Amino acid sequence: MGVPSTTVSTVADGAGPALPASLADTIRDDAALRRFLHGLPGVDQVGLEQRVAGLATRSIKKAAKLWAIDTAIRMVDLTTLEGADTPGKVRSLCAKARRPDPERPEVPQVAAVCVYPDLVEVAVAELAGTNIGIASVATAFPSGRASRGVKLADTRYAVAAGATEVDMVIDRGAFLSGRYGEVFDEIVAVRQACGEAHLKVILETGELATYDNVRRASWLALLAGADFIKTSTGKVSPAATLPVTHLMLQAVRDWREQTGQVRGVKPAGGIRTTKDAIRYLVAVHEVAGPAWLHPDRFRFGASSLLNDLLMQRRTQLEGHYSGPDYVTVD
Amino acid sequence: MTDNVWEYAPAPESREIANLKPNYRMFVGGEFVDGTGEPLKSVNPATEEVLAEVATAAPSDVDRAVAAARKAYDELWGRMPGAERAKYLFRIARLIQERSRELAVLESLDNGKPIKESRDVDIPTAAAHFFHHAGWADKLAYAGYGPEPRPVGVAGQVIPWNFPLLMAAWKIAPALACGNTLVLKPAETTPLTALVLAEILQQAELPPGVVNILPGAGDVGAQLVQHSGIDKVAFTGSTEVGKEIQRSLAGTGKRLTLELGGKAANVVFDDAPLDQAVEGIVNGIFFNQGHVCCAGSRLLVQESVADELLEKLRYRVSTLRLGDPLDKNTDVGAINSKAQLEKIRELTASGDAEGAERWTSPCPVPEKGFFFAPTVFSNVHQAMRIAREEIFGPVLSVLTFRTPTEAVTKANNTPYGLSAGVWTEKGSRIFWLAERMRAGVVWANTFNRFDPSAPFGGYQESGFGREGGRAGLEAYLDV
C-alpha cells in the first residue's frame, strides 16, 4: 500500500473498445490520467442545480406519460439486495419481473433483476427463456473493502453462475486519496473477469461528495471500459439524485462525441415514484438525447418504483386511481 | 439519432384562469374610468387575436390623473407614517401571490412569454419587490440618506412591454415605500396585467389617487413626463426615447432616472465550468425571447475553448422548445409584436450581409403568431451591427478573445453598460474583471438573476439611477 501503481493498464490489455488517439494518451500512466481528470471542466453547483430544477418542471401528460411509464418499466433493474434475501424472495421477484402486472399481460417486462452473487443461480433458473437480464452486484458490494483477489473471485463466481450483467463498486478510498490508476486498474481487471457480461460501474456518488468528483469518476470509469456508469449502491445516503444523474448523462454524451461509443447510465436508490422516474427520463431525453431512451442505455436501479409505475399506468388507462392493493407486493 | 421517440403531449395552462375581460379601463383616483383617448386593442402575439379593448388617456385624462396623485400626496400619503404605508405594501404583495396564477396566465397571453417564466419569475419577483420595499417603508431613516428623508412628490413612470407586471412593481413599490404618489403608463402592447394590479390595489384598499394607471401609446407617455405637476420621472425603455425624455426635461428641475438598452457581454474563460456556462448563455439570451435589456447578447469566448463551447451551445439551443406560451413545456414564446419581429429580422439580415455565420435552431416554428427561432451568429466582429446594436430578440452574437485584457476591452467597447457576465472557476479573475467592467451589474458564473435587494441600473447609454436595494431608494427620496 502507499506505492502508486506506476503503469496503468492500457486498452491493449483487453479493457474494451479501442480509444481514439486523443484519449489513448490519457491512460498512459498515473500522471497522465490524473492530468486528464483534473483538466476536465469544473462543475458549478449552483448552475447545475438550477438547470436540474428547471427541467424538473416539465409537464408530461397523456400519451407522453403513458409512453414514459412503459419505457420506465422496461428500464427497471428490479433489485433486492438485503442480508435477508432468500431463494424464495428472489423467485417471487423474478415472477414479478416476468409479469409485472398479472392482470395486464401487455405490460412490458423489466430489463433485469439484480441480486447478490449467491442468488444468481436461483434467478437464472427462474428467468430461463426470457430476455430479462440477470444482474449481480460484485466486488465486495457495497463497500468494496476487500482485496483485489476477493473482488475478482466474487465477479467470476457471479458470472459463472450465469450473471449477464455485473454491477461493481469502485474503490472510493483509492479515488478520494487520488490513486486514480489503482481505481482504473481494478475496473479493467473486473471487466476482464466479466467476460461477456456487461459491466456497470457504481461510483457511489454519495461518498464522492462533490460534482467535480462525480465528473472525474464518470470519465475514469468510461476510460476503463464501463458499459454503464451507475450512481449508487443504495446503501449510502444520498443515493441517486437528479443533479448527479444529469452530470453522468452529460459525461456519456460527451463520451460519444469524443469516441463514437455509446455508454449507459443507471441511477439507483431512492427513485420510488412515477413522478421521479419521469423527471429522470426528461433529463435523459434533453441532456443525453433521445437516443438514450432505451434500456440498453438507461436503467433504473429500484425495487418499489415498479409498483408505483404499475399503479400510475392503470390510472392513466382507467381514468381513476386504484390503490396499492391492486398491485402485487413481492 | 432517433428523434421524436418521445413527443411531449401539449400541457397548456387554461386561459380561463386569466379571467380575461372584453374591456379594460384606466385607473384614476381609485376608480376605473373611461379614457377619452382612442381605445387600443391588445393582441395576443402568439395567435395575433385581439384579447381586449383598452381605454387610453387623452391629455385631459393625464391632467386628471396627475391632479389625483397630487391630492393624495398632499392630503394623505406623503404624511402617512412609514409603518402605515408598509401595511398597504405587504397587503399588495400578498394579493399578488394570491392571484399569481391569474396574473401569470394573463401576462403570457398579453406578452407572449412562456408560462413557466411568468409563473416562476415575473409574478414571484413582482411580489418580492413589494415585500422588500414594504420592509423599507418604516426604516428609511436607516437607509443612509439622513435622519428623516422626505419623499419627492408625484412620480410619472413609463414602463416597457418586456416584463409588464414586474416593471410596474419595480416602479410602484419603491415609490410608495418612500411616500410618493404616482401615475404609471404601461406599454401600449401589454397594458393588461397593470390594470389587474389596479384591481389588487383596490382590494388592498390603497387610498384613492396614490397610484393611477393610464394606458396609451408613446404620446401619453410624453404628456405624462412633460406634465408640470410631476416632480420625478422614471422611465424604462429604449435609449432613443430615453434621450428624448432627458432632452424634454432639461431645465425643468424634475428628477429623472432612466433604465435603457444594453448590449451585454457574457465573458467565458477557458477554465469556466463549460456546461453551466452554456446554461448561463442560454438563459442570458433566450430567457424572455431575448426581450431583456440586460440580455447577454454578446458572447465573448476565449478562443481556446470556442469550438467546444459552441458545439455544446448549439446542441443545447436545439433542445429549446418554441411555441405556445401557455404550454408549460415551452421554453421560448412569441415575439411581443410585429414591429419587434421586423426589427429582429432586419438586424439579423444585416448580420448575414456583413458576413457573420448564422445558425438557427431546427425547432419547428408555428405558422401563426410572431415567432423567431433561436439564432446564434458566430464569426462576429466588433464592427458589425449585430455586435453593436441592441437586437432585443433571441439572437446571440459570438465573438472571441485571446487574453483577459482583450476580453475587457471588447466587453466595454459599447455605448451601453447595463450588465455583464463572467464565467471562470478562478475567483481572483472574477474580481479582476468585475472591477474593470463598465456595467451596472456583473454576474459571476450565472446570468439574469434578479433580486429586490440588488440594485439594478446602467452606465452611459444604458441610463442612470438604480432600482432595487438601498441604492434604489435614492430615486424616490428628496436627498
Number of helices of chain A: 14
Say which CATH homologous superfamily of chain A is assigned: Aldolase class I
Most extensive protein-chain contact, per-chain counts = A-B, 30 and 29 residues
Strand content of chain A: 5-15%
SS content category of chain B: alpha/beta
- Choose one word for the global shape of chain A: globular
Low-confidence runs of chain B: none
Task: Estimate nothing, just give the exact number of structural domains of chain B.
Answer: 2
Oligomer: heterodimer
Fourth-level CATH superfamily of the largest domain in chain B:
Aldehyde Dehydrogenase, Chain A, domain 1
**Averaged pLDDT of chain B:** 97
Report how far the terminal alpha carbons of chain A are from each other: 45 Å
By CATH, the topology of chain A is TIM Barrel
How much beta of chain B, percentage-wise?
15-25%
Give the beta-strand count of chain A. Answer: 8
CATH class of chain A: Alpha Beta
Spell the H/E element sequence of chain A. HHHHEHEHEHEHHEHHEHEHEH
Secondary-structure map with pairings?
The complex is a heterodimer of chains A (330) and B (479).
Chain A: H1 21-24, H2 30-38, H3 45-55, H4 62-74, E1 76-79, H5 87-98, E2 112-115, H6 120-127, E3 133-137, H7 148-160, E4 165-169, H8 172-176, H9 180-194, E5 198-202, H10 205-208, H11 211-223, E6 228-230, H12 242-259, E7 264-266, H13 274-288, E8 300-302, H14 305-318
Parallel strand pairs in A: 1-2, 1-8, 2-3, 3-4, 4-5, 5-6, 6-7
Helix pairs in contact in A: 4-13, 4-14, 5-6, 7-9, 11-12, 12-13
Chain B: E1 23-24, E2 26-28, E3 31-33, E4 40-43, E5 50-54, H1 59-77, H2 82-98, H3 100-111, H4 115-136, E6 154-158, H5 164-177, E7 181-185, H6 192-203, E8 211-213, H7 218-226, E9 232-236, H8 239-249, E10 255-259, E11 265-268, H9 274-286, E12 298-302, H10 303-318, H11 338-353, E13 357-360, E14 375-378, H12 385-388, E15 395-401, H13 404-412, E16 419-423, H14 427-436, E17 441-444, E18 463-464, H15 469-473
Parallel strand pairs in B: 1-5, 6-7, 6-9, 7-8, 9-10, 11-12, 11-16, 12-15, 14-15, 16-17
Antiparallel strand pairs in B: 2-3, 4-5, 10-18, 13-14
Helix pairs in contact in B: 2-4, 3-4, 4-5, 9-10
